[in-house]
């Protein structure tokens, strides 16, 4: 009888094909399957030619060719296709078999699938996969969560195909139910924030300081040797200096209207749902929305006054240094906010999240990979119960070192009328988070004044009282009217 496969992979598009070849490189026999089965033959005859990959033309054939417990990984379009495939595979599985969804599924869907499959004795895993085509082929960042009983059966495959930082794989068990997909969602949200922060630095260097593209590219290449060392800084340095066939810089010819697929928006929505101020990711999503109003902006640019052209008369090198520090400080705030959201979701869902492990999973293989994630990992290694990254000694001293520059950059941007939504919101969050007193006492008074919503006194927290502010209202407080 022919050799049985270690794992089956359904979905022969860009991610599936490359993950299969990656698994093959690491010695695993993979059985490939796809809804359109001709793609199985095409794949075996072309990309997988000469490998140990085998194919199947039906779900039954695929399941029959697997070692037990059976491991079936899906890399198909998220949503209904995943449910449809789960329904089709189930009749051919036995108790203890494993289904892994590596697509960009919503974490609530993964939660639901985990629960319903557990009742049937099937172990379900929802794994974030990041790194795009190249990552899938040579080492992605993998964020698996779901039924923990599945982990010992998939650990070796997952950790061997994942990206490595030194000898450490960028893959570890994230936690229960939908946590792997939640972590992937927050990763994508942070990616939106990182990208917008770099765009704001570019805008300031170009339109305030007046650097040309080659100079900006050189600055970023320099930044990439220090604390900002990251994949996104590296590629932006390359993008800025890239010249079109006519010798002009290509990036300057690209329409300034950003697209999005929704994962940044999902992060912002869950931040609102859980009441966590993930302001930087929220602003980065809104910045893309504002950019997309291109026609309205073109019209408004001729109608609405700004401060007028202000000549930059400062020290260029010094201001560029201030921008790098503003970027670093804002980035720290963004990650602190992302981890606050993870902590809250873990509380709501009862997940036991491995925060240092998450930093390590993002350290390599994915779009937000950076040296800085090593510092985050170190912070959680030092104190796994760390309540907020900003309170770790390393990050505390980074904020101390950066804050003056950060304030100068935001103030300059406001003065000259350059929008820096993420630099600014990060600073506002930082100042709010470090404030013993905020003006929310007045909000409470206003709420009580117009809606009898009650308030607590500083000296007596937990006891809610109502004041008849006008002398005309009654003394009855509201229980239902929420503003
Ligand atoms: P796609 O997201 O383009 O999905 C293509 C696969 O889904 C094909 O196998 C296709 O089968 C199958 N499929 C579709 Br489309 N509709 C289906 C349906 N109604 N029923 C059954 N199968 C269906 O592929 P991808 O870009 O390789 O991504 C795979 C997953 O990984 C997605 O969830 C994606 O969001 C996620 N992801 C992608 C990237 C990336 O960089 N592309 C990165 C990280 C994660 P067919 O061949 O018969 O049409």
UniProtKB/TrEMBL annotation:
<feature type="active site" description="Proton donor">
    <location>
        <position position="191"/>
    </location>
</feature>
<dbReference type="InterPro" id="IPR008927">
    <property type="entry name" value="6-PGluconate_DH-like_C_sf"/>
</dbReference>
<dbReference type="GO" id="GO:0019521">
    <property type="term" value="P:D-gluconate metabolic process"/>
</dbReference>
<keyword id="KW-0570">Pentose shunt</keyword>
<protein>
    <recommendedName>
        <fullName>6-phosphogluconate dehydrogenase, decarboxylating</fullName>
        <ecNumber>1.1.1.44</ecNumber>
    </recommendedName>
</protein>
<feature type="domain" description="6-phosphogluconate dehydrogenase C-terminal">
    <location>
        <begin position="180"/>
        <end position="470"/>
    </location>
</feature>
<feature type="binding site" description="in other chain">
    <location>
        <position position="104"/>
    </location>
    <ligand>
        <name>substrate</name>
    </ligand>
</feature>
<feature type="binding site" description="in other chain">
    <location>
        <position position="261"/>
    </location>
    <ligand>
        <name>substrate</name>
    </ligand>
</feature>
<feature type="binding site" description="in other chain">
    <location>
        <position position="288"/>
    </location>
    <ligand>
        <name>substrate</name>
    </ligand>
</feature>
<dbReference type="InterPro" id="IPR013328">
    <property type="entry name" value="6PGD_dom2"/>
</dbReference>
<feature type="binding site" description="in other chain">
    <location>
        <position position="192"/>
    </location>
    <ligand>
        <name>substrate</name>
    </ligand>
</feature>
<dbReference type="Pfam" id="PF03446">
    <property type="entry name" value="NAD_binding_2"/>
</dbReference>
<dbReference type="InterPro" id="IPR036291">
    <property type="entry name" value="NAD(P)-bd_dom_sf"/>
</dbReference>
<keyword id="KW-0311">Gluconate utilization</keyword>
<dbReference type="InterPro" id="IPR006113">
    <property type="entry name" value="6PGDH_Gnd/GntZ"/>
</dbReference>
<feature type="binding site">
    <location>
        <begin position="34"/>
        <end position="36"/>
    </location>
    <ligand>
        <name>NADP(+)</name>
    </ligand>
</feature>
<keyword id="KW-0521">NADP</keyword>
<feature type="binding site" description="in other chain">
    <location>
        <begin position="130"/>
        <end position="132"/>
    </location>
    <ligand>
        <name>substrate</name>
    </ligand>
</feature>
<feature type="binding site">
    <location>
        <begin position="11"/>
        <end position="16"/>
    </location>
    <ligand>
        <name>NADP(+)</name>
    </ligand>
</feature>
<dbReference type="Pfam" id="PF00393">
    <property type="entry name" value="6PGD"/>
</dbReference>
<feature type="active site" description="Proton acceptor">
    <location>
        <position position="184"/>
    </location>
</feature>
<feature type="binding site">
    <location>
        <position position="447"/>
    </location>
    <ligand>
        <name>substrate</name>
    </ligand>
</feature>
<dbReference type="InterPro" id="IPR006114">
    <property type="entry name" value="6PGDH_C"/>
</dbReference>
<comment type="pathway">
    <text>Carbohydrate degradation; pentose phosphate pathway; D-ribulose 5-phosphate from D-glucose 6-phosphate (oxidative stage): step 3/3.</text>
</comment>
<comment type="similarity">
    <text>Belongs to the 6-phosphogluconate dehydrogenase family.</text>
</comment>
<feature type="binding site">
    <location>
        <position position="104"/>
    </location>
    <ligand>
        <name>NADP(+)</name>
    </ligand>
</feature>
<feature type="binding site">
    <location>
        <begin position="76"/>
        <end position="78"/>
    </location>
    <ligand>
        <name>NADP(+)</name>
    </ligand>
</feature>
<feature type="binding site" description="in other chain">
    <location>
        <begin position="187"/>
        <end position="188"/>
    </location>
    <ligand>
        <name>substrate</name>
    </ligand>
</feature>
<comment type="subunit">
    <text>Homodimer.</text>
</comment>
<dbReference type="GO" id="GO:0006098">
    <property type="term" value="P:pentose-phosphate shunt"/>
</dbReference>
<comment type="function">
    <text>Catalyzes the oxidative decarboxylation of 6-phosphogluconate to ribulose 5-phosphate and CO(2), with concomitant reduction of NADP to NADPH.</text>
</comment>
<dbReference type="GO" id="GO:0050661">
    <property type="term" value="F:NADP binding"/>
</dbReference>
<dbReference type="InterPro" id="IPR006115">
    <property type="entry name" value="6PGDH_NADP-bd"/>
</dbReference>
<keyword id="KW-0560">Oxidoreductase</keyword>
<feature type="binding site">
    <location>
        <position position="453"/>
    </location>
    <ligand>
        <name>substrate</name>
    </ligand>
</feature>
<dbReference type="InterPro" id="IPR006184">
    <property type="entry name" value="6PGdom_BS"/>
</dbReference>
<dbReference type="GO" id="GO:0004616">
    <property type="term" value="F:phosphogluconate dehydrogenase (decarboxylating) activity"/>
</dbReference>
<dbReference type="InterPro" id="IPR006183">
    <property type="entry name" value="Pgluconate_DH"/>
</dbReference>
């Amino acid at each position: 009888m022919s050799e049985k496969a270690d794992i089956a992979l359904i979905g022969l598009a860009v991610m599936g094909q490359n993950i299969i070849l990656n698994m093959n490189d690491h010695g695993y026999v993979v059985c490939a399957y796809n809804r359109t089965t001709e793609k199985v033959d095409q794949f075996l005859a072309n990309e997988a030619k000469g490998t140990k990959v085998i194919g199947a033309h039906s779900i039954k054939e695929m399941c029959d060719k697997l070692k037990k417990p059976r491991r079936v990984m899906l890399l198909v379009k998220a949503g209904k296709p995943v449910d449809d495939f789960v329904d089709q595979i189930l009749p051919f599985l036995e108790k203890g078999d494993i289904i892994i969804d590596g697509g960009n599924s919503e974490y609530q869907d993964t939660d639901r699938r985990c629960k319903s499959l557990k009742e049937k004795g099937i172990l379900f895993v929802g794994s974030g996969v990041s790194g795009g085509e190249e990552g899938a082929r040579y080492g992605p960042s993998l964020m698996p969560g779901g039924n923990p009983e599945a982990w010992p059966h998939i650990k070796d495959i997952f950790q061997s195909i994942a990206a490595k930082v030194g000898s450490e794989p960028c893959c570890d068990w994230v936690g229960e139910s939908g946590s792997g997909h939640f972590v992937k969602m927050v990763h994508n949200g942070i990616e939106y924030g990182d990208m917008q922060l770099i765009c704001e630095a570019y805008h300031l260097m170009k339109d305030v300081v007046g650097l040309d593209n080659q100079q900006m590219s050189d600055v970023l290449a320099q930044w990439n040797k220090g604390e900002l060392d990251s994949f996104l800084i590296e590629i932006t340095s390359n993008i800025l200096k890239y010249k079109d066939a006519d010798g002009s810089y290509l990036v300057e010819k690209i329409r300034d209207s950003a697209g999005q697929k929704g994962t940044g928006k999902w992060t912002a929505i869950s931040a609102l749902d859980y009441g966590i101020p993930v302001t930087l990711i929220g602003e980065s999503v809104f910045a893309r929305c504002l950019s997309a109003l291109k026609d309205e902006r073109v019209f408004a640019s001729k109608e609405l006054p700004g401060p007028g052209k202000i000549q930059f008369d400062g020290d260029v090198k010094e201001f560029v240094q201030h921008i790098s520090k503003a970027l670093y400080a804002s980035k720290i705030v963004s990650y602190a906010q992302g981890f606050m959201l993870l902590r809250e979701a873990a509380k709501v869902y009862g997940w036991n999240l491995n925060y240092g492990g998450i930093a390590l999973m993002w350290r390599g293989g994915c779009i937000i990979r950076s040296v800085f994630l090593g510092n985050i990992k170190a912070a959680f290694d030092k104190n796994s119960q760390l309540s907020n990254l900003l309170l770790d000694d390393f990050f505390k001293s980074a904020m101390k070192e950066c804050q003056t520059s950060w304030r100068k950059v935001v103030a300059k941007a406001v003065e000259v009328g350059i929008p820096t939504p993420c630099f600014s919101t990060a600073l506002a969050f930082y100042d709010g988070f470090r404030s013993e007193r905020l003006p929310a006492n007045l909000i409470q008074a206003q709420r009580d004044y117009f809606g009898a919503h009650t308030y607590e006194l500083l000296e007596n927290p937990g006891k809610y009282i109502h004041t008849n502010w006008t002398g005309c209202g009654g003394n009855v407080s509201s229980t239902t009217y929420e503003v």
